[in-house]
Amino acid sequence: MRDVTEIWSYLAHGPLLWLALTLAAFVAGSFVFERAGRRAWANPVLIAVGLVAAALELTGTSYATYFEGAQFVHFMLGPVTVALATPLWDNRAAVRRSLLPMAAALAAGLVAALGSVVVIGRAMGLPASTILSMLPKSATAPVAIGVSEGIGGSPTLTAVLVILTGIVGAVLAPPLLALLRIRDPRARGFAVGLAAHGIGTAQMMLTDARAGAFAGIGLGVGAVTTALVAPLVAHWLF
Question: pTM of the full predicted structure?
Answer without folding.
Answer: 0.75
